[in-house]
Amino acid sequence: MEFFSFIIIYTSCKVYIFLKTKRLIQIKDPLLRKIRLGLRQILLNESKKRLNLLHDKRRDLQDSQELNQLSYDEYIHLVNPIVEKVNKIRIELSSSIVVCAICRDIEGDRVFSPKDKIWYCPKCYAILEKSYKKEIEALGKIN
Ligand SMILES: [Zn+2]
Q1: Are strands 118-120 and 14-17 parallel, antiparallel or unpaired?
Q2: How far is the CA of 53 from the centre of ligand 1 (A)?
Q3: Which residue from 88, 80, 114, 97 is spatially nearest to 43, judged by alpha carbons?
Q4: Is 4 within the bounds of a domain?
């Protein structure tokens, strides 16, 4: 089971499909909003905890390399999997519904952009949508 795959907990949310593709996940009930925020905080704290552990491992390896306990090749061989894990966690977190991909907000509703396959808060998505429309208009003027 992937780390963020159990975000499917939002089954009680109302899902609106408009403009054919973008999806708004909106919760109006204050109690459900509180539960959603609590779940997001748990996921965010867990990802921070895992990132901190990986950073500690990387720092230990750097110290060993600086003290000549590890050769540069050994250091690279050991540190690359750690860097890959850090990147994977960051990408999963950024593209998950837990945080807005732009403002990093953990509260509030989310809009899924099928173009980017990323979740945004409604405010950030509105700004993005304006830029998408300007981009389409600009392309129309060019062609
Ligand atoms: Zn945002």
Answers
A1: unpaired
A2: 28
A3: 97
A4: no
- 108 Cα–ligand 1 center, Å: 9
Q: Does residue 112 fall inside a structural domain?
A: yes
The answer as to whether 58 is a domain residue is yes
Q: How many domains does the chain have?
A: 1
Host domain of residue 81 = 10-142
Long-range contacts of 112-117 (CB under 8 A, 24+ apart): 112/22, 112/23, 112/25, 113/22, 114/21, 114/22, 114/23
* Ligand 1 center from residue 105 Cα (angstroms): 6
Strands 23-26 and 110-113: antiparallel
pLDDT in tens, 121-143: 999 999 998 887 887 778 777 76
Does the predicted TM-score (pTM) go above 0.70? yes
Per the domain annotation, does 2 fall within a domain?
no
